Amino acid sequence: MLVSKGSWVNFHCSLHSGIIQLWDYQMCAYLEKFEEHDGPVRGICFHNQQPIFVSGGDDYKIKVWNYKQRRCLFTLLGHLDYIRSTYFHHKYPWILSASDDQTIRIWNWQSRNCICILTGHNHYVMCAQFHPTDDLVVSASLDQTVRVWDISGLRKKNTAPTTSPIDDHHRHPGSADLFGQADAVVRHVLEGHDRGVNWAYFHPTLPLIVSGADDRLVKLWRMNEAKAWEVDTCRGHYNNVSCVLFHPRQEYILSNSEDKSIRVWDMTRRTCLQTFRRDQDRFWVLAAHPTLNLFAAGHDSGMMIFKLERERPAYAVHGNLIYYVKERFMRRLDLTTSKDHAVIQLRGGSRPNVYSMSYNPAENAILLTTRTTNTDNSSYELYLIPTETNSSQPDTPDCKKSSGLTAIWVARNRFAVLDRNQSLVIKNLKNEVSKKIQVPNCDEIFFAGTGMLLLREPESLTLFDVQQKRVLAEVKVSKVRYVVWANDMSHVALLAKRSITLCNRKLQILATLQEITHVKSGAWDDSGVFIYTTSNHIKYALTSGDNGIIRTLDIPIYITKVKNHQVFCLDREVKARVLNIDPTEYRFKLALINRNYDEVLMMVRNSKLVGQAIIAYLQRKGYPEVALHFVKDEKTRFGLALECGNIEIALEAAKALDDRICWDKLGDMALLQGNHQVVEMCYQRTKNFAKLTFLYTITGNSDKLGKMLRIAGIRKDVSSHYCTALLLGDVTERVRLLKNGGQISLAYWTAVNHGLTEEAEQLRELMDEEQLQNLKAVPEAKLLTPPPPLFLLDANWPLLTVTRSVFEGPQLKNKPTLAGGTGLITDEIDVDPTGGWGDDDLQLDEDNQAEKIMDEDAAAGEGGGWDIDDDIELPPDVEVHASDAGNEGFFVAPTKGVPVPQQWTNSSKLPVDHVYAGSFESAARLLNDQIGIVNIEPFRQLFLSAYTRSRATYTALPILPSLHLYPMRNWKEQKTTAPAVGMTIADLIQRLQILNLVYYARLRLLPTQNGCYQLTTMGKFGEALDKFRSLLLNIPLLVVDNKPDITKAQELITLCREYILGLQMELFRKDLPKEKIEDQKRSCELAAYFTHCSLDAVHLILTLRTAMNLTFKLKNYKSASSFARRLLELGPKADMAQQTRKLLQVCEKNPVDEHAMEYDEHNPFLVCAKSYKPIYRGKPEIKCPFCGASYMPQFSGVLCTVCTVAEVGKDTMGLRISPLQFR
């Protein structure tokens, strides 16, 4: 049974094992189990108000449970056989139970008594239910009847009377007896089933009953006060019907059966609308949610929750306008004015089940897709929205309707339709087909920008260019249901049932999120954060993978737009809502990720970011100093301060906590930082006298070491006392300690060797002669004492200067600093009576000698100091002139200006300007960002040549070194400078065609070298390859100032790429062996590929002639004849044309290829520059970002073989050779 209880949305399922399980179906979480029944549990029901439920089982027991207390409250006994169903009354404290003992019982669960027994069935009673409003009960039995019982007498008997029996008899003369009536009587007996009836159910509002039986029929009955009769029969199940019920809000009947199916019937037409089947499990029971469009069905292996119809509204967003369908109207919501009105009325009689919507703002047109259970019947409608609309009486414009699964706009006057045959059909505004594309395995399409579509396959999503009919990108994501693009189309969210995948424009995965509940909807806000909803939360997701909860929801919503702190959405009833959210948390995280520290600091000061989640996030991301701003708990604050090395805040927290462990940790951290003043305080608080002694020794503080000697004596710590005396070189104290410790011999020997005559004589008297003979003074004995400190270390140990974090500055403002001066922090020793040096903590002797030591220290610190009197009285007429205060009259040298090459690098993003400035490293970085250059070595000579011509040298005076002059290309401008470039696009074109005899004749010169074209014509392929590649590498070092020259440079790159690729294939072909037939086939294939390179006509004739001859020798006459025809179309010389025609005549006699080649001239293709294999249109490919050479996807990341400098597949900005490209 389904129920919504407070913050829980639960269902119970009763099992054949006797266990009752409580589930939260929204979270798919198993909450609790109840085990007291001794056999299978067949009936269960929630109370509509109390936190209780009732169950009945095969142990003949009815149990009432409290699911909050998780226990059984009581058990009702009375039935003599299995209990089939149990139900609560909607109003009275009654329980209705049906049993195999052929009786129906009504129980008062407050008094825990059986108040009525309904008898009359002569077989098992399979179910019994109360009417939703009337005093009626319906029951179904295996005796092939359905009975309707009147229990109004029971109600009157068990409720307080408000009128006399005579008055009630006059008001209802046909229903009551003046002298009383039975508690329950049979009003109707419904006979019509041929076998046992398993279920009967009342309609919630109409006088109807539906029943299901073992005769495989579902029957509909109508009744009134006098009689009941059969209305109609629904046929379709081919096994026993287990359960039937009415839809709570629509005219549907639901039934399930042992034929492993659930069927939905139209109550008016009595036809089956939908059928759901399971392969292995029979269905037994159905339940409907009281308020939501949810149903539960129990089967052999468990329980399933399902919906009958889609609740997600169809909507489209354009700017601040939201178009959506509600009932029979297309409505428009203006977010700026909050006006919501109907635009048009949709055609069609019944309520539309609009699946999706696509809006065209250019033509003000809308596409509505309607889907049915049978996808073959899905269709779309094209509406043109009128410019002027009447919201009170909207027009019903004509629409163009056709079949199709999905329809989406791809251009201003074109839209794409996915039809049932998995074909992509492009149509115009007249709904006429203009293009048809086969897209196998595609079951859904999504919008991806102008001319682009996302094609969904079972396990992937593909970005498809409709115009070029090729795949641009692909991502492996399964079962994507919705696609949400950012406003600038830079990011996309792919929504599956319980997961979200965030990608960039090229479908590269940025983050993947998993949810335990259904993902409902989402939208991108202006800052690039994805806001989405689940069944019960509004959440956010950043492209870095960080996510969190913004707020909880009472009901599911569907986000249409996010604007600042407002979420515009539609609910299940298609009502427009506006929800306020707090974006502080995700904006804070976004600012941290983007390193926008100014915004972070502003949010730290002004926002109320609290909670362990944000603190843990900051720690995880390496920002403990930021987390300090949000922490109030001193223990957490102490840990964060230690993590970021902030001794001052850690000291404050340690004082507040006053815990030994905290002082130990603080002491260790302070020691690492060389802050021995804090170390001293920590050792004092923990009474670690051994470490204090060592600290005073290494800092050279002899006075404090003397105090430690005296305190060790008070503490009667002989070992520490002796060690301290040893460090101080106090022989007298050592002798005294040895004497008091009973070490007379050792004390005497120490006194004798160190010249303490008086003490030695006193000790001599305590010793016998034998001991004295063994202890003789050592003449060369010396007093060994530690060297005296050169100076007292008052300040902390010096450390490297470290830049303080931007977040630590605001924390330390107005914070007290550590006291300077000598050693200890004054407040901690001399003032605080409860500190580490107090007599209560030390537990010293009764004379309070340690306190006297402190008093001595305090008195020693009270000196006169500097006699500075701040109260000096000065005449009021004394003035200080500003010139006297600020003008000292010294010479200020002029600052050095910025060198001209540095100006070039500062003001330009063109790589050539950085080369001319001598900044080769920054030029290499720019080339990497712009065209993916990773191998800079081929540019070495070009860089050096360009740098040498960037400046001129002249001599000003004989005694001065040479000076440099920098030629400028923009010398007329005053603001910025740029170097003069010694090479133009015309120079490169001239190098391409250097053997232009007309050009040289005009200049009366003789050509001194061969150009790229001439070398290719002469067959010197190696030299021509080097010339083309050198020409290609010179193109990024150009500077042009107009768009035509930019276009020429791009065309020059394309030309060089085609020639380099073709020449490389030809050289590779010439090196192949020719003995085997496979080698000969490969040679022919390479020659064929060469003919598809974009070459000059002269060279194309030569390539076609080579391919023709090779294929003819291989007896591939069909291919040879094709090459011959192409050759003749180019108009070769007469002798070559004559020979070609003869060969063509021979080939046409037998136009067959004897050997199959990997070559299809009718299917457009590109040649992979690595493997020299064809990449046919529509197949995935990647390109070199510099030269544009094509490669198969497996070669991503390799060095391009054409240009030899760029990384294949790298994401770059593109070639930049003009300042116009940066505007």
Number of helices: 34
Q: Determine the fraction of residues in helical runs and give it as a percent range.
A: 25-40%
Q: Using DSSP, what is the number of strands?
A: 60
Uncertain regions spanning at least 5 consecutive residues:
1-10, 162-180, 810-872, 877-891, 995-1009
Which structural category fits the helices and strands? alpha+beta
N-to-C terminal Cα separation, in Å?
A: 65 Å
Strand content: 25-35%
- Rough outline: flat
| Rg result | 47 Å
Q: Mean of residue pLDDT?
A: 81
Biggest sheet character: 4 strands, antiparallel
The order of strands across the largest sheet is: 1-2-3-4
Tally the structural domains. Answer: 7
Topology (elements, then pairings):
Elements: E1 2-5, E2 8-14, E3 19-24, E4 29-35, E5 41-46, E6 52-57, E7 61-66, E8 71-77, E9 83-88, E10 94-99, E11 103-108, E12 113-119, E13 125-130, E14 136-141, E15 145-150, H1 152-158, H2 165-171, E16 185-191, E17 197-202, E18 208-213, E19 217-223, E20 228-235, E21 241-246, E22 252-257, E23 261-266, E24 271-277, E25 283-288, E26 295-299, E27 302-306, E28 315-318, E29 321-326, E30 329-334, E31 339-345, E32 354-360, E33 365-370, E34 379-384, E35 399-403, E36 406-411, E37 414-418, E38 423-428, E39 433-438, E40 444-447, E41 452-457, E42 460-465, E43 470-475, E44 482-485, E45 491-495, E46 499-504, E47 509-514, E48 519-524, E49 530-534, E50 537-541, E51 547-552, E52 557-563, E53 566-571, E54 576-580, H3 584-593, H4 597-606, H5 612-620, H6 624-627, H7 634-643, H8 647-657, H9 660-672, H10 676-685, H11 689-698, H12 702-715, H13 718-728, H14 731-740, H15 744-753, H16 757-764, H17 769-774, H18 826-831, H19 839-842, H20 849-860, H21 882-886, H22 900-907, H23 911-916, H24 920-931, H25 940-948, E55 952-954, ...
Antiparallel strand pairs: 1-2, 2-3, 3-4, 5-6, 6-7, 7-8, 9-10, 10-11, 11-12, 13-14, 14-15, 15-16, 17-18, 18-19, 19-20, 21-22, 22-23, 23-24, 25-26, 26-27, 28-29, 29-30, 30-31, 32-33, 33-34, 34-35, 36-37, 37-38, 38-39, 40-41, 41-42, 42-43, 44-45, 45-46, 46-47, 48-49, 49-50, 50-51, 52-53, 53-54, ...
Domain COPA/B TPR: 612-751
GO biological process, one term: intra-Golgi vesicle-mediated transport
Domain COPA/B second beta-propeller: 342-571
